[in-house]
Specification:
Layout: E1 27-30, E2 37-40, H1 50-63, E3 65-68, H2 76-84, E4 102-103, E5 106-114, E6 138-147, E7 155-159, H3 160-165, H4 169-176, E8 179-183, H5 215-218, E9 226-230, E10 232-234, E11 241-243, E12 250-253, H6 258-272, E13 278-281, E14 288-292, E15 296-300, E16 309-317
Parallel strand pairs: 2-3
Antiparallel strand pairs: 1-2, 3-14, 4-5, 5-16, 6-14, 6-16, 7-13, 7-15, 8-9, 8-12, 10-11
Bound molecules: succinic acid.
Succinic acid binds at residues 112, 123-124, 141, 143, 155, 298, 300, 311, 313.
Length: 334
Amino acid sequence: MVAAVRPRAADVIHRDRRVDARNLKIEVRPLAGALGARILGVDLSRPIGDSTFTDIYRAFLEYLVIFFPGQRALSPEQHTAFAARFGEVDREPFTYPFKTPTVPGQTQILLNVKEATDRTINVGGFWHADVTYRERPHKAGIIYAKDVPPFGGDTMFANQYLACDTLSDAMKRMLGGLKAVHSSRMVYGNEWARYASVSRTRAPLLEERSFSKSMYAQAEQASVSEFDHPVIRVHPDTGRSCLYVNRGFVERFAGMTPEESLPLLEFLWDHASRPEFTCRYTWSHNDVGVWDNRCTLHYALNDYSGERREMHRVSVHEPSPPAASRAIPGRDAD
Ligand code: SIN
């Protein structure tokens, strides 16, 4: 059931004085200081009018990740139709570098499932943005919570505008001239297996803490994709600068060795996910979330050992490759 709510001034997009709360068709409830908002008053199982979608899109740009609690069950077609409002739907199965399962007959829907008996990794259990090893990574991920555990299985998100804005001008100047090599090999992303299936009563055994034990290692492996992107990119909709490196896929700075790159990358990876830059969402059955993959990182927690979790994700392409920011150093233009 979708709550029939009227917008309340205190809950709407308060940081953007250009948004007139009284005219919004939706209610927007901020989730944390850095990013994230719940959107109420929308039924995603029905077609969404253009003016309502305009409000949703503004909230997406303002809050970077938005959640739609209390939805009805969505069919693959309804899920895909909503995702298509954000851009061109990626209809190929993703490679990570394993070929990910998709919902039968729906190659555009990534089937992200961890069974109750599986004590190994879950997909996305490390800080990353999706498929950044492609020339045109995803613009947005539109995820639907099909089956949620009774506890745990939250997803965390981190605001990469803030990660960029809080660097010193000298650091921004240096990073502004660099590109990073993003690769589907996931050489550092692999370390997330260390945290495989943690629970209150039992830490994972050594043999469970291995990517090679997971169902994804048994899946068909794909050839490696690799692409260089600016370390500080511009967001094409807002014109703001964002830090654009992620621990999952970045291997090194372009033109440098891994040994030369790693000390600075380690700093940037830790900085990018400072607790103050994050929000955390606890999923309920049928919730939908939409993240801006250009200016956020996300991390799916693997702390629901013995429980089942099933998420369906549709993603949309960025229309063009990420471009370097021209607003370095100094403040972004309003
Ligand atoms: C992902 O798409 O990276 C995982 C998100 C999730 O399952 O919460």
